[in-house]
Structure formats: structure tokens, C-alpha cells
From TrEMBL:
Protein's name according to its UniProt entry: Solute carrier family 3 member 2 N-terminal domain-containing protein
Parts of the chain that traverse the membrane: 65-87
Keyword Membrane found: yes
Domain Solute carrier family 3 member 2 N-terminal: from-to ranges: 33-106
GO terms of biological process kind: L-alanine import across plasma membrane; L-leucine import across plasma membrane; phenylalanine transport
Keywords: Membrane, Transmembrane, Transmembrane helix
GO (cellular component) term, any one: apical plasma membrane
Disordered, as annotated region: 1-24
Listed SUPFAM superfamilies: (Trans)glycosidases
Keyword S-adenosyl-L-methionine: no
Classification lineage: Eukaryota, Metazoa, Chordata, Craniata, Vertebrata
GO molecular function: aromatic amino acid transmembrane transporter activity; L-alanine transmembrane transporter activity; L-leucine transmembrane transporter activity
Organism of origin: Oryzias sinensis (Chinese medaka)
Stored InterPro entries: GH, Glyco_hydro_b, SLC3A2, SLC3A2_N
């Protein structure tokens, strides 16, 4: 029993020990315990105290100071570099003081009725008011109108400076014209009195006219005109100096009113003396009337050398239609204020020519087949538009380019029939104007310091020969008869 019981007991014991053996073989339980231990020991970062302790270590302190030093050295280096660039850069030239009459061309309307016939059936001031928008679109800065005051023929004692002649309109129409011009923001309207004072040399007449004239100046300036034009200023300043002093005080009293003088002389030396002695803001003369271009170049050079170009004014009365564009380019590129006389010089006759051309072509359409006229009509009209559009393009260009507005003038070449000069301002684009008044082609060989070999055509009176934006060789610049061109090239730095 005992042995059997012992065996049974051993077997029972073995039977009771099987579950622990089975538990030891259960690897899942052991693996779970191991995974939990690993998760408990995973790195989760440093807390605040640990971070402060690490950041305060000598290694990190030295690193931070090194990075901070590199940052400030780089910042100071960039600052020093910027200062050096500014100091070494060429200083921009200070713009000269200018007035509104230096910023664009002026249009002088001597014969109001003849001028209005070009633009509108109305021959009065009201008709001119309707065309202010058209004139402003041509970038004109001022209209010099007159004389339009009442002036009885051969009766100087009864001149009415403060009354408008009924054939031109009335004072209310003139006021509306001024308001319209000022509202456009571009066009000013100086009042013009011509052929009044330079015809009278007697002291009595001078005294009588001086009293009326001073009152008239105050009256018209109070009505809103932007300036006065007077002829024979050298005679007036010499014969009645006190009157001339009063006239200048009335007009040039610190306001933006312009005093325009007119002299009949064409001598550059005399014009220079008159400009110095009278003190007018602008002086119109006949210095450009010379047909010889050498004399013309001498006149321009003399006046430019002795006076500020803000005091110079240029005008031409050459009505040759073949030279309209050439004259436009000449006046617009000379140093000073261009003054165009009448509507012919700015292409306002285009409308009249267009109307007449349409009438002629309409008659041709009646006499010929309609198809043939349709082929001719657009081409002929297109050829007639050039003068006004050319003037407008030159006027817009002059208003945008500093070299043309108040740039330095340098004469490059001149002969009896050819002329070339350069306009330069600081670092702006340079412009070179070349003209040929001869009856045959001419080749200009232009060279010198600062002149490149090639330049781009900006404006040309003959786009067939010299297309705009084409490149030309300044050493062999060819101009056809009666042709002019304006070319440009950049500042070479």
C-alpha cells in the first residue's frame, strides 16, 4: 500500500506539477511583461530642469556665443557694404528750377479767325473753347492769344486794353475759355498784346499808354490769365524805364505768371543783350530765321552759353510744308521753350486737308468706278495724317525725357545745310538730333567722347529711309534731302 500509495502520490504530485510547467511554456505572458518594461524605459525627452542643466553646459554656451558673433559680424558687414555702395555711387545731378512754361511747347495764335478756320466753323473765342481738349491732347502747355482787345485803326489814344473786340467775342466767352483751359490742367493762357508799344516813340503817347497798360495788366491778371506777352521790350525798357520796372513788378511778383518779350532783331548778340537788360522770362526773336545752318548753330551756341536755357525761347515762321516735321523736331529738341506760331506748325491743317481730300475723292468716286477709289482713299488719307501725329509724339517724348527737357547741349556738327547736336542729362538716356536741309543726301560722320558707334532711331521724318527703333551707324549717318532724325543711346556708366 505504502509503495503503491507512494507511487500514486508521486504520480499525483507529477499530475499536480503539470500546470506550472504549462505556465512556464506560455511565452505570451513573458513577452507582455518584457514589452511593458521596454515602454517604461523609452526616452520621452528632457524636462525643464534637465534642459536648463544641459543648456548651461560650457559647450553649448560657447556654441551660442559663436553663432551670435557670426550673426552680428554678417549684419555689420552688410551694413558697411551698403554704405560703401551708396558712397561710391555717382551723385544724381540736382534738377534745375523750372516753371510751367519750360515743361512743354507754347502755341501762339496771332490771327484768331484764321486759326479757327482750321478747326471749327466758329471764328470766336467760344469756338476756341470747344477745341481746348484737342490742343491739350497735343501736350501744349500754353496758348498765347491775341491781340484780341479793341484797337481802333490809327487811333492810339483810344486803345481799349480791357475790352475784347466784338469780332472775337466778349469777356464772358474769354473767361469760359480760361476756365476750360485750367480745368484741363495742362494748357495755360497768357494774354498777348502785339504791335502796340513799339510803334510809338513820342513821350506823350508813351505816358498815356503806360497808364492804360498798367491798369490793363492788373485787370487781365485778375481775370485769370497766366502771363503777358509784349513786343518791343528793349525800346520800352530803354525809353520808359520806370514803366518797365512797374510792369515787371506787376507780373513777376513771385507768382507763376510769365512775362514774354518779343524783339524784331535776329542778331544773336543783340538778342543776348536784350534778354539780359530786360529781365523777361522768355524772349522771342528771329535768331533761327537764318537759312545758313552755320549761322543758326552759332546763334544757338551763343545764347545757350550766356543764358540759362529756362530763359530761351525758339520759334520759326517757315511755312514750307516740306519742312514742317523738320522744324517741329528742331524746336522740340533745342534747349529752351519751343513756341509754335499758328496751326500750320503743329499740323492743325490736317483737318482742312482731310476735308478737302474727302471732297476731291468723293468727286472722283462719281466719275470713276467705286472700287478704284476705295483702293486710293485710305492710302491718301493716311499720308496726310503725319504732321499732327508726329508733333504729338515728339511733344510726349520731350515731356518724359530729362535730356530733352533740360539736358546739356553739345554741338557735334554743322555746315551750311546740315546740323547735329547732342542732349545729355546726368545718367539719363542721351539723344542726338541730326538735320539735313540740303537738296541732296548727306552723310554725317559723327564721333567723339561718349558717342557709341550705333544708336537707335526714336523719331524720323522719313520712316521709309530710317524706320523707328532701327539701328544706325553714327559714323555713317545718312540723311536724305530735307530729312531729320532723332536717335538715342544709353548712358555708358
Amino acid at each position: 500500500m505504502t509503495g503503491a500509495g507512494g507511487a500514486d502520490a508521486d504520480e499525483g504530485a507529477d499530475g499536480l506539477m503539470e500546470p506550472p510547467a504549462a505556465a512556464e511554456k506560455n511565452g505570451t505572458v513573458k513577452l507582455k511583461v518584457l514589452e511593458e518594461d521596454e515602454e517604461q524605459t523609452k526616452f520621452t525627452g528632457l524636462n525643464k530642469e534637465e534642459l536648463l542643466r544641459v543648456a548651461g553646459s560650457p559647450g553649448w554656451v560657447r556654441t551660442r556665443w559663436a553663432l551670435l558673433l557670426v550673426f552680428w559680424i554678417g549684419w555689420l558687414g552688410m551694413l558697411v557694404g551698403a554704405v560703401l555702395i551708396i558712397l561710391r555711387a555717382p551723385v544724381c545731378r540736382e534738377l534745375p528750377p523750372t516753371d510751367w512754361w519750360n515743361e512743354g511747347p507754347l502755341l501762339q495764335i496771332r490771327n484768331l479767325q484764321a486759326f479757327m478756320m482750321m478747326m471749327t466753323p466758329s471764328l470766336s473765342l467760344s469756338g476756341l473753347e470747344q477745341k481746348v481738349s484737342t490742343l491739350s491732347g497735343l501736350k501744349l502747355k500754353g496758348l498765347v492769344i491775341g491781340p484780341i482787345h479793341a484797337a481802333p485803326a490809327d487811333d492810339p489814344m483810344n486803345l481799349e486794353f480791357e475790352e475784347i473786340s466784338p469780332e472775337f467775342g466778349n469777356l464772358e466767352q474769354f473767361k469760359r475759355l480760361l476756365q476750360t483751359a485750367h480745368r484741363k490742367g495742362e494748357t495755360r493762357s497768357p494774354w498777348c498784346s502785339t504791335e502796340l508799344l513799339n510803334r510809338f516813340t513820342m513821350k506823350l503817347l508813351m505816358r498815356r499808354i503806360s497808364m492804360c497798360l498798367q491798369s490793363a495788366l492788373v485787370f487781365w491778371l485778375s481775370e485769370g490769365v497766366d502771363g503777358i506777352q509784349l513786343p518791343g521790350v528793349e525800346d520800352l525798357a530803354r525809353m520808359v524805364p520806370s514803366l518797365w520796372t512797374d510792369i515787371r513788378a506787376i507780373i513777376q511778383n513771385g507768382t507763376d505768371k510769365v512775362l514774354i518779350g518779343v524783339t524784331e532783331t535776329s542778331s544773336a548778340e543783340t538778342v543776348s543783350d536784350v534778354l539780359s537788360s530786360t529781365g523777361v522770362d522768355l524772349l522771342l526773336s528771329g535768331v533761327l530765321s537764318a537759312s545758313d545752318q552755320t549761322e543758326r548753330a552759332h546763334s544757338v551756341q551763343l545764347l545757350y552759353s550766356n543764358h540759362s536755357q529756362t530763359k530761351l525761347a525758339w520759334s520759326l515762321e517757315d511755312l514750307s510744308r516740306d519742312l514742317v516735321k523738320v522744324n517741329q523736331l528742331l524746336l522740340m529738341t533745342l534747349p529752351g521753350t519751343p513756341v509754335f506760331i499758328g496751326g500750320d506748325g503743329i499740323g492743325l491743317k490736317d483737318d482742312v486737308r482731310q476735308t478737302k481730300l474727302r471732297q476731291t475723292l468723293f468727286k472722283e468716286m462719281v466719275l470713276r468706278k467705286r472700287s478704284k477709289c476705295h483702293a486710293v482713299f485710305p492710302l491718301r488719307l493716311q499720308g496726310e495724317r503725319g504732321e499732327r501725329s508726329f508733333f504729338q509724339s515728339i511733344s510726349e517724348l520731350r515731356g518724359k525725357e530729362r535730356s530733352l527737357l533740360f539736358g546739356d547741349f553739345s554741338l557735334l556738327f554743322n555746315s551750311s545745310s546740315s546740323l547735329a547736336y547732342l542732349r545729355v542729362w546726368d545718367q539719363s538716356t542721351r539723344f542726338l538730333a541730326a538735320f539735313n536741309w540740303a537738296a541732296e543726301e548727306v552723310e554725317l560722320q559723327l564721333s567723339g567722347a561718349g558717342l557709341p558707334h550705333h544708336a537707335a532711331v526714336v523719331r524720323s521724318t522719313n520712316t521709309s529711309a530710317l524706320p523707328e527703333e532701327s539701328s544706325v551707324d553714327l559714323r555713317k549717318l545718312r540723311l536724305g534731302p530735307g530729312q531729320a532724325a532723332l536717335v538715342r543711346f544709353p548712358h555708358d556708366g
